[in-house]
């Protein structure tokens, strides 16, 4: 008997006298006791807001990213403990990998993105500087800083590990403490993973807390700096989002709800095409993985009308070969639903769908799961075919959250998009086509109704991630029925837990706030060339002014013949004069960049390791033979990359003999921390 505990204000709290028993979906017996203990929600919120939040905000994004990586490694080292109880949820080990490995992988991705795409600072700069006056003395900049409240994560039963970790990763990276509330049915697996997080000792006190059982009056105490992130049914989401405190305080509410996702087999596919085979393969996977208990599963299979019977026969045959039974039994490919209540709900929805479509696979007559009782929470893969999807209503509005899908014939691409859109908002729709025009037409017709469009064909190979696989790099959410929110999406996911603020002031003020040098802010000079200084020694705003160099006609012609760039503006005086941009023959832009490097580079060995990139290059004024150029090189920002070196971004400005700006760009160099 498992007895998962809550974690409140740094203390574990066991189930109380009124704990609720959890019935196992495989054995139909009690496997856990949950909740029943009074939890002090005031203490939880105070602990998060006054202890965990300040500790997280004192760190930089990179500090928090490093913790995420260490957490992922720690959980990965103990994942077999999670697999040991995964089968109690009804999931096979293969299904458990989607949950367990998927959650760990998401943390790794956010750790990497935090280091690569966010600064080693406490302020995230969002977008470019906006000049608000003519002189450049007053500027605007958007920034993002962590919310100073708490994130409450209310998770679904189907992914007890991934569901927690995919929300925690961007939340902690943002610098916001979290209170995790898993679904009761599978909370014991969430608690086992959460306990590992606490055991690791990597997070500061108050950064994470756990509620097993009911949330009590927690949501009634949410404020304007808090976030509630919910995954589950549309009915529950509607109930939660109307909590008076959330409305009164404009508390952020993120919802990822159930949706009637569609998969479209393109009209260019025939029964012998690779796209047809891919469609069948993914449909089987989406119907059977986690026993179809995925918010991203394919619920409606849209196929060309002339292929409907062919698809029905082929898919029925494949689904009929799926072995259903005890998740630990040899050869079993699909386990049980999460609970008997879930089974009852799915059977009721199957009956509703059956009023508009014929069942072609999945009869319960004679159904016998391997090494398990058919009266437990098992259902065979079930497939329907609807001959008149236009007249149907239930198929486009009722979701059986299990191994259930329906084949719908369509007449043309416009009809396919129309049917997909009748779901009124989905997390994902997929298109299996090799025709770019088909992909474009469906995108233009239906993208507004879907959070993600997954387009697969013969060319994607093994790189395709799968219709039902939310990736941490891409947003996970959708409009309408799908909840109207989004999660994940790389740094976009982090921004859900941060406040975007427009700051306005002088270049010096904005530079001090952002930690980045802004043109017009104070500069400093050092007698030692910056390329002879370590990453640590180089200061933001440190600047050098180079001596001038005159550009000759010989330079221009030599560069042209040496590189092969004999464009007429560099070689033909009369033709160049006819060009409205040039006064006559001019120097190559890349010749100017080469001369600039020669002016500011220190040739001797030093802490600078490599030039790794150039951003935002622009040319403002042509340079003719006889003109001279000089360079202003300024340290713009610094970002740690590894344990031995970091990236220094330099603002490079080229001016001519009249101090007019000729070109500007950002130079990236890798610089060692030590000599």
TrEMBL record:
One of its GO terms (molecular function) is hydrolase activity. Keywords: Hydrolase, Oxidoreductase. Coiled coil: none annotated. Residues 12-501 form the Aldehyde dehydrogenase domain. The keyword Transmembrane helix does not apply. CDD domains: ALDH_MaoC-N (cd07128). It comes from the Bacteria. The keyword Oxidoreductase applies. Gene3D superfamilies: Aldehyde Dehydrogenase, Chain A, domain 1, Aldehyde Dehydrogenase, Chain A, domain 2, Hotdog Thioesterase. Residues 539-648 form the MaoC-like domain. InterPro entries: Ald_DH/histidinol_DH (IPR016161), Ald_DH_C (IPR016163), Ald_DH_N (IPR016162), Aldehyde_DH_dom (IPR015590), HotDog_dom_sf (IPR029069), MaoC-like_dom (IPR002539), PaaN-DH (IPR011966). This is Oxepin-CoA hydrolase / 3-oxo-5,6-dehydrosuberyl-CoA semialdehyde dehydrogenase.
């Amino acid at each position: 008997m498992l007895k998962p505990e809550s974690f409140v204000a740094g203390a574990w709290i066991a189930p109380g006298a009124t704990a609720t028993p959890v019935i196992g979906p495989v054995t139909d017996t009690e496997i856990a006791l949950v909740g029943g203990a009074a939890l002090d929600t005031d203490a939880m919120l105070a602990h998060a807001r006054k202890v965990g939040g300040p500790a997280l905000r004192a760190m930089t994004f990179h500090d928090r990213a490093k913790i995420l990586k260490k957490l992922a490694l720690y959980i990965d080292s103990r994942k077999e403990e999670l697999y040991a109880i995964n089968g109690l949820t009804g999931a096979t080990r293969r299904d458990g990998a989607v949950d367990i490995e998927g959650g760990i992988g998401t943390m790794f991705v956010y750790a990497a993105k935090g280091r690569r795409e966010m600064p080693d600072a406490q302020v995230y700069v969002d977008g470019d500087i906006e000049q608000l006056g003519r002189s450049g003395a007053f500027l605007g900049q958007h920034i993002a800083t962590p919310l100073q409240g708490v994130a409450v994560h209310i998770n679904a039963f189907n992914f007890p590990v991934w569901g927690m970790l995919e929300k925690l990763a961007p939340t902690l990276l943002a610098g916001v403490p979290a209170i995790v509330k898993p679904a009761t049915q599978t909370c014991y697996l969430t608690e086992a993973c959460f306990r590992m997080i606490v055991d690791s000792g990597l997070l500061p006190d108050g950064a994470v807390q756990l509620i097993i059982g009911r949330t009590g009056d927690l949501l009634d105490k949410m404020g304007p700096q808090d976030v509630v992130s919910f995954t589950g049914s549309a009915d529950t989401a509607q109930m939660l989002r109307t909590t008076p405190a959330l409305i009164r305080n404009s508390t952020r509410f993120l919802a990822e709800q159930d949706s009637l996702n569609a998969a479209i087999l393109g009209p260019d596919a025939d029964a012998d095409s690779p796209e047809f085979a891919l469609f069948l393969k993914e449909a089987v996977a989406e119907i059977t993985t986690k026993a179809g208990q995925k918010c991203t599963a394919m619920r409606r299979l849209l196929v060309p009308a002339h292929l409907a019977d062919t698809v029905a026969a082929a898919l029925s045959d494949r689904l009929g070969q799926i072995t259903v039974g005890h998740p630990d039994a040899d050869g079993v490919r699909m386990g049980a639903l999460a609970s008997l209540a879930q089974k009852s709900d799915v059977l009721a929805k199957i009956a509703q769908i059956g009023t508009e479509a014929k069942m072609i696979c999945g009869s319960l007559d004679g159904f016998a799961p391997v090494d398990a009782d058919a009266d437990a929470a098992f259902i065979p893969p079930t497939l329907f075919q609807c001959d008149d999807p236009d007249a149907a209503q239930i198929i486009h509005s009722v979701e059986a959250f299990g191994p259930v899908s329906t084949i719908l014939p369509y007449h043309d691409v416009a009809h396919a998009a129309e049917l997909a859109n009748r779901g009124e908002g989905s997390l994902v729709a997929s298109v299996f086509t090799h025709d770019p025009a088909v992909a474009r037409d469906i995108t233009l017709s239906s993208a507004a109704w879907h959070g993600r469009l997954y387009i697969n064909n013969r060319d994607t190979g093994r790189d395709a991630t799968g219709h039902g696989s939310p990736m941490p790099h891409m947003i996970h959410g959708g409009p309408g029925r799908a909840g109207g929110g989004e999660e994940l999406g790389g740094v976009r996911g982090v921004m859900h837990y941060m406040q975007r603020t427009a700051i306005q002031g002088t270049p010096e003020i904005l530079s001090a706030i952002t930690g980045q040098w802004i043109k017009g802010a104070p500069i400093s000079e050092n007698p030692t060339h910056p390329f002879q200084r370590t990453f640590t020694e180089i200061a933001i705003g440190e600047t050098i002014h180079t001596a001038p160099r005159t550009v000759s006609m010989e330079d221009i012609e030599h560069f042209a013949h040496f590189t092969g760039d004999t464009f007429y503006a560099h070689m033909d005086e009369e033709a160049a004069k006819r060009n409205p941009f040039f006064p006559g023959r001019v120097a190559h832009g890349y010749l100017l960049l080469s001369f600039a490097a020669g002016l500011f580079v220190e040739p001797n060995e030093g802490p600078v390791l490599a030039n790794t990139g150039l951003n935002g290059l622009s040319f403002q004024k042509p340079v003719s033979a006889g003109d001279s150029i000089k360079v202003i090189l300024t340290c713009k920002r610094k970002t740690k990359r590894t344990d031995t070196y970091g990236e220094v971004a330099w603002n490079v400005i080229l001016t001519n003999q009249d101090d007019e700006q000729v070109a500007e760009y950002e130079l990236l160099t890798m610089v060692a921390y030590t000599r």
